[in-house]
Each structure stands twice: as C-alpha cells, then as structure tokens.
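hiii so um. not sure if this is the right channel but i have a protein structure encoded as tokens and i wanna go backwards to a sequence. like what aa goes where. can anyone help
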C-alpha cells in the first residue's frame, strides 16, 4: 500500500468520510475515491451488496 493510501485508511479508521478526508489531505474527492478503491483491491475486499468494505478495511488496518 502506498503512503497516501495508508493516510487515507488511517483517516477512515478515525471515522472521516471521503469529503472530510479530501479536505484534510488537500486533494479532490475523486482522488480519495481512487485511493479507497485501491485500498479495497489491495486488501482483496470485493464489492458486495452488504456495503461493509470500509469497516473491513479499517479492521484490517487496526489488526483486528
């Protein structure tokens, strides 16, 4: 994972949404979406209807 992806994941773990993450990192929301998608792919979290990939990504980050 890139350092930027780790930054995004850390902010996700703190409960920030994409808009807030973009603002904090001074990037576009589209850039955040790209990073989040890369995070999901690298953690092998496929898209599902359950919509809990963010939670699973954060749990992985936290080592749970």
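sure thing!! here u go:
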């Amino acid at each position: 994972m890139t350092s930027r992806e780790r930054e995004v994941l850390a902010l996700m773990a703190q409960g920030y949404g994409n808009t807030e993450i973009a603002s904090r990192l001074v990037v576009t929301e589209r850039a955040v979406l790209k990073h989040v998608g890369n995070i999901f792919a690298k953690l092998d979290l496929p898209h599902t209807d359950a919509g809990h990939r963010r939670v699973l990504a954060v749990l992985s980050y936290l080592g749970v």
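oh and The domain at 3-62 is CATH 1.10.10.10 (Arc Repressor Mutant, subunit A).
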